Structure formats: C-alpha cells, structure tokens
Amino acid sequence: MPARKRAARPEPDVDAVVATLKRLGTRATRDGMARYAIPSDRAFGVTVAALQKLAKDLGRDHDLAVGLWATGWYEARMLASFVGEPDRVTPALMDRWCRDFDNWAVCDTVCFHLFDRTRHAWGKLEPWSRLPGEFQKRAAFALLWGLTVHDKSARDESFTRGLDLIERAADDDRNFVKKAVNMALRATGKRNPALHAAAVEVARRLADSPEPAARWVGKDALRELTGASVARRLAARGRATP
User: Fold this and answer.
1) Half-sphere exposure of 216 (CA within 13 A, CB side)
2) Cα gap 122→32, rounded to integer Å
C-alpha cells in the first residue's frame, strides 16, 4: 500500500499571527513594560518567552517576518526577528528596519537574532554609528555586540575596527547609545586575549577622557574587563584553543 503523503502545512497568515499575539497578551505584561523603558502604546503585552515559543512553532519564514514588521506592533516586530531568514535579508531591508527602531528592545532583538547572522552585518557598523537617531546609532553597537558572540570566524582586525567606532562614539551621553557602546566594548574585550588587551587599552583612554559619557563607558568597562571572572574565562578559552 503506497505511503500517504503528508499534508502541506498552510502558510502562516500575518493577520492570524497578530490575532494570536493579541490573544497571548496580558494587561499586566503590557503595564510592566514601562519599568524597562519600552513604550506600550503599540503593544499587546506578550512575554518574550511566549514570543520565542510561537516563533519555534512558526519556523523561519521571511515573507511572514516582513509582513509582521509592517504592522508596527511591538510583539510583531519582535517576532519578525525570530522568524526572519538571514540569507534573505538585504542591506536595504536592514536600513529600513533600522530607521523604524523606536525602543531598545526591538533594536537589540533584531540585531542579536537576525541582523548579526547576515552577510551584510559588518558593512552596517560604520554608517549606522554615524546616524543621528538614538536607537539607530545604538543599532551599530548592538550589532557589534552580537557579532562578538555569533560570528565565530571573524578576524580580530574586524573587531579592532569596531573598537575605533566605540572610541569615536563614547562621548555620546544619550542613555541608550552609551549603554550599547559600553556593552560592545566589554563584549569585544571578552572575545579572546588579544582583543582583551586592545579593549582594555581603549577603556583606559576613555576613563581618562574629559567627557563624562566617555569616562563612564571606560570606567565601567574596566571594572569588568580587569576582573577575575574575565581573566578566568580568557584563560580557559586559551587552554581550549589548539
């Protein structure tokens, strides 16, 4: 008896997914977003854990991601970062979505879960680091931060150029820029011993800067990069390297 063909799974519909998001949302979660400086006027109140579970059920679907982004809903845009297909992301789409960033959560989630897995990521760091918008500029350093973790094959020279961008932007005193600059510096310094030495050198210069924001970035990064836990981590990494 011939094997029965499995029925094809229907393509997810943007409206149906948004309806699911609306059903999953709670007022308590939406009201709690303010504690994390996330605007809730276009949000349902869905937890990140619920979004990730839904994304796993949906699977990667680039067309769905584009449709979800276009709705403007907070959770739809978060979900788009989880279901988008990195190989189908174009430089134009990256720029378009970057222009739409209006909070740190969407900015960071898109950069950490989608953009840093594309072949265009490194080419966006320098131009985005010059953008005037707070979350647009943050995107450059959130993306660099993500690359320190996910781009296992990148050469140190790429991150050294990233350190130049960090040093140039460290005097920006806007909260969501300086925090991303700080995190990118710390993450670069934890990648390997050579980059650790380079990052500590940058952090020391920033710590001596006359600019308050740069001083904060440098001193805060130095506290972690010169701490015992980072030293142990780098030593263990060195032992594991053939």
Assistant:
1) 17
2) 35
